[in-house]
Amino acid sequence: MLHSKTFVKKTRGGKVNKQVREHYLRDDIYCGAPICKVCDSSAARLSPSASTILIVDTNVVLHQIDLLENSAIDDVVMLSIVLEEVKNKNMSVYNRVRALCSNSMRRFFVFANENHKDTFVKEMNKESKNDRNDRAIRVAAQWYQNHLGGAARVLLITNDRENKRKAIEEGISAETIESYVKSLDQPNLLDLLVQPASEDLNMEEVEDLRPSKRKVIYAEHKPMSEITSGLHRGIYHQGKLRVNRYNPFEAYVGSESIGDEIIIYGRANMNRAFDGDIVAVELLPQDQWYEEKSLSIADEEDGEEYVHLVPNSADDAPRTTNVVQGSAGDTKVVSSRPSGFVVGIIKRNWHSYCGSLEPMPMPAGSGGTAHALFVSKDRRIPKIRIQTRQLENLLDKRIIVVVDSWDHLSRYPSGHYVRTIGEIGDRDTESEVVLIENDINSRPFSSQVLACLPSLPWSVSSEDLANPIRQDLRHLRVFSVDPPGCKDIDDALHCITLPNGNFEVGVHIADVTNFVLPGTPLDDEATQRGTSVYLVERRIDMLPKPLTEDICSLRADVERLAFSVIWEMTSEAEIISTRYTKSVIKSSAAMSYIEAQARMDDSRLMDPLTTELRSMNTLAKIMRLKRIERGALTLASAEVKFQIDTETHDPLDIGMYQIREANQMVEEFMLAANVSVAEKILKHFPVFSLLRRHPSPTREMLEPLLRTAAAVGLNLDVSSSKALADSLDHAVGDDPYFNKLIRILATRCMTQAVYFCSGDLSPQEYHHYGLAAPLYTHFTSPIRRYADVIVHRLLAASLEIYKLPSIFQDRPQLTSIADNLNYRHRNAQMAGRASVELHTLIYFRKRPTDTEARIVKIRANGFIVFVPKYGIEGPVYLAPRSEKGGGEWFVDEQQQKIKKMDGSLSFSVLQTIRIHMEVVEPQPNRPKLQLTLI
User: Fold this and answer.
1) Chain-centre distance of CA 282, in angstroms?
2) Mean pLDDT throughout 339-363?
């Protein structure tokens, strides 16, 4: 059956075209219920013994997804019209619903009501789209009721009062979600319900969780129409809100419209915005602007509830803020950095938060609803008020909570409990928290994904060797150099001297795309995961272990498939020619960096492998020098290395990661391979190549580095990457660690490198600032990065080995993949850092330590220090409130010093100090590594 709809559409040129949209309707779409006597039950997803079948409307799916994911809710019919609405309104919820519907363990059935002749509804005159969708849902519910003929109760779940009223009038059974959950007689399920914002209650004090009289706490958000107009007129400024990790009362909004960061200070000025929200900001009067030196580090004791009503008041800082005093004791006026307050939220960044409930006495009586405050492990997140019927079971647990709303009359946002992770303080629980907070998928691979793998044991076949696209390179002395214990080896090298005195150098990369085929469940899973995640005690793979540690891993003494980049180079590392080929290799050695370095350093060793290592190292040094001469930056980061107990997985030792020449040698050839491949794929596919760029930092971003350098007598030239690189080379002092510290500070001023689709930007924007390379991509780690898988496919297509998958013709889709890769890459980095912080806490819990630290940032009430020995950074407070007569501190912005008014004591940036490190718990369930001045 065909339903046609005719309408007219105006083109850009002003012409009016008549268009006909055809909608095909069928009568053979099954209902999914095995109890049905009419439909084919082989496709049934619902339970044969289901006494009630639920049909849920769009708002229930959007707002109650946490409840729907609970196994107590089953036998649900998901209408196609509901899925389409959810997809248009919230892609994240849509993906979760699709996962539910495709999960063979759950009984969710998708019914194509828009394509069934008995459930499709035509649009009526003067009927809104929303009303038409509600009517379509009721028609589908009515059809199910009639179709099943009383074999099961069909129940429409809707919180829309009007929709429910009409359903009952039409003879359809309908209930609210809360009414239905209560009928299940499982009180704990009520904790998962999202409460409407109108039911939001105000909490007066942390200690008193009873609803208080309603009063205005925050300014109301401006309507979107007013925000749009204000942005257009330059009254408001848009940007992402980033909360300071050391002070949750201090945030920054990067604004392109004023070319600087706007400081947002205090909860009132943040006006219910969360870290990561896209906000509209109005600037405060200039006499209320903050200078960086007047900002403080927040203490754990600072009251979260310390906010004021007036949104443009600059006095709503936490109580630890010290008034900056002038030399005569008068209050110093500060008017440097633009400061502002949030007038509206353009896009929310709410997600799941991990933490625990604030300790509180059990309310009288048991089993009833209790109000509790949830404290996130992330200090940047405000406390969240929830209702729970299982308070006693949750007080000593790490739990997940989701925010539902934040009314301007409420001191705290309202949310609901989702699930329990485990006991507070348990290492496995806390590691799970790290993964959840950073949206890392650590679930086992599904059976559909595992079905895509070749059977084990796997080996190179005669067909592989006979394949004309693949060159047999098993005669070459190929070797790999990796971190100790590395099992997912995705790169290997070779180097031979040619008769003309030049060198043939090869980079051989695991041929992952031979096994990960486009459009398969394995490929879809890798696309979503984006990257492997490396925690201190374990690795979460992007691909299943049979691939990462066996089939693709370039282990010693086994034949493996590779994708090779082979150069002819002069002894001065000039590239004469480059060729690319699929290959078969057999690695002769899988060495650690330490082993490779020991070989090169041992003058007694003259075997071919060691000689080739030395040749490659010599070439790598020349290549590195040339890169630096072009302006590449040699930056530094505080990478921490743990020694882990193999049985308990607890840290036994901690220290800075040591970089050797062997590390730099491998890095140099991987960089060269990435650059060569970037040039090749862009030449063939100028519009849809996946590249990696590193935007140049702005002068404002480099300002903290310049101020610090000037304070210690350094004049850094930041006019170009070459000028900065030269300046950093000359930034040396008496102290051998001084230069590394300056480089670490420089690294922190940089933007993030990102993946992008070449057609989305102009060639000038492709530049990689840190590497001083006009073109760059990722090709060398396809076992652990999906970006490299895409690049392998592009390279193979450029060599006419394979046809390019159709997805590469869809630029918006490729851009979406690049965005996801950037998101996953950043999350993996954050998870790695959080894992280091967790294991640092575990290590120092029983090991209070005195050590040296360097001051890296001055604040009004202390400073941020970096501990070189352990790669740790944290705040040190001066004159804490408990100290009587501590005296006032004066910040000298020019000299980057903080000193006592009486001149008895002063501290300056980059100064070496002695500190005591100890794990304390100033707030329950929030342990932290406390650094105190000795």
Assistant:
1) 28
2) 88
Q: Using one digit for the tens of pLDDT, what is the confidence trace for 805-833?
A: 888 888 888 898 999 999 999 999 999 98
- Residues 123-127, mean pLDDT to the nearest whole number: 81
pLDDT of the residue at 309 = 29
**Does 320 or 874 have the greater pLDDT score?**
874
Give the span between the Cα atoms of 406 and 496, in whole angstroms.
66
Together in a domain, 299 and 239: yes
* pLDDT of 322 above 70: no
Give whole-number Cα distances, 469 to 210, 330, 462, 796, in Å: 73, 79, 14, 10
Query: Which DSSP symbol is given to 595?
Result: H
Q: Give the domain range for residue 890.
A: 848-933
For 398-424, b where at least 16 C-beta lie within 10 A, e where not — what string?
A: bbbbbbbbbbeebbbbbbbbbeebbeb
Confidence of residue 782 (pLDDT cuts 50, 70, 90): very high
With CA atoms as reference, report the closest residue to 579 among 795, 276, 350, 826: 795
Separation CA 727–CA 746 (nearest Å): 11
Q: What is the token pair recorded at 622? A: 């020349």
Comparing CA positions, the residue from 297, 116, 284, 142 lying closest to residue 880 is 297
Q: Using pLDDT thresholds of 50, 70 and 90, give the confidence band for residue 791.
A: very high
* Residue 291: per-residue pLDDT: 65
- For position 311, what pLDDT does the model report? 31
**Domain match, 588 and 471 both:** yes
In a domain, 485, yes or no: yes
* pLDDT in the model for residue 722: 85
Average pLDDT, the chain: 84
For residue 213, give the nearest of 222, 201, 205, 198 by alpha carbon: 201
* Residue type, position 388, single letter: T
Q: Peptide bond before 457: cis, by omega within 30 degrees of 0?
A: yes
| 696 domain residue, yes or no | no
- Residue 338's closest CA among 266, 260, 276, 268? 260
Please give the residue that has the higher pLDDT: either 681 or 290: 681
Same domain, 328 and 367: no
Tokens of 218: 């925050």
Q: Indicate whether 579 belongs to any domain.
A: yes
| Tokens 């239905």 -> residue | 180
C-alpha–C-alpha distance, residues 906 and 893, integer Å? 13
Cβ count within 10 A of residue 256: 9
* Mean pLDDT (whole number) for 851-862: 84
The answer to whether 585 touches 562, Cβ cutoff 8 Å, is yes
Residues 820, 910 share a domain: no
**Number of other CB atoms surrounding residue 112 within 10 Å:** 15
SS3 690: strand
- DSSP letter string over 284-316? PPGGGPBPGGG--PPPTTS-TT---S-TT-TT-
Q: Quick one: what percent of the chain has pLDDT higher than 70? A: 86
Q: How many residues does the chain have?
A: 934
Distances (CA, A) of 617 to 597, 601, 890: 10, 11, 52
Predicted TM-score (pTM) of the model is: 0.81
* 904 φψ region: left (φ > 0), alpha (ψ -120 to 50), beta (else): alpha
Residue 873's pLDDT is what? 83
Judged on CB neighbours under 10 Å (0-12, 13-18, 19+), 425 is middle
pLDDT at residue 255, rounded to an integer: 81
Is residue 764 a part of any domain in this protein? no
Q: Do 382 and 327 reside in the same domain of the chain?
A: no
Nearest 10 degrees: Cα torsion 130, 132, 134, 136: -150
Question: Residue 89: helix, strand or coil by DSSP?
Answer: helix
Which token pair is 388? 């729970």
Domains in the chain, number: 5
